[in-house]
UniProtKB/TrEMBL annotation:
Keywords: Membrane, Transmembrane, Transmembrane helix
Record has Transmembrane as a keyword: yes
Protein name per UniProt: Uncharacterized protein
Species, as recorded: Rubidibacter lacunae KORDI 51-2
Residue intervals passing through the bilayer: 15-35, 47-70, 76-96
Length: 123
């Protein structure tokens, strides 16, 4: 039988190691999902990276939940929770509405090009 208390205690005991894997993993997989969405890669690539990011972000939320369950409320818990929720939202965006993400990328790229042209003219 699954002992949730033991799993939660293990999560809190090895917090530094767990966060050392989850934080960069979540950011990297989310960035990869966004990059592949903006570069119009196939659905398989996008779903793989976004699914991995969703999994890692969900594990991070559960890990933070173990700290909140024992009433350890610090700024770090809220920062990790916010990071996980932002990565979760961006991954869902890459899955649900890739066209709007690609339009946003095109708009941002066009704005940078215009900015660079203005900078070249003023020199």
């Amino acid at each position: 039988m699954l002992d949730l208390f033991a799993i939660a205690e293990l999560s809190r005991t090895h917090c530094a190691a767990i966060c050392a894997v989850l934080v960069p993993g979540s950011v990297a997989l989310t960035a990869l999902a966004l990059w592949w969405t903006m570069r119009a890669r196939t659905r398989r690539w996008r779903y793989g990276a976004a699914g991995g990011a969703l999994l890692v972000a969900t594990i991070m939320v559960l890990h933070v939940g173990t700290w909140l369950a024992v009433r350890v409320v610090t700024p770090v818990t809220f920062v990790l929770l916010a990071l996980a929720l932002v990565c979760w939202a961006e991954s869902l965006w890459a899955i649900a509405a890739p066209g709007s993400l690609q339009r946003l990328y095109g708009w941002g790229r066009a704005a940078l090009v215009r900015r660079n042209r203005v900078g070249e003219l003023s020199r």
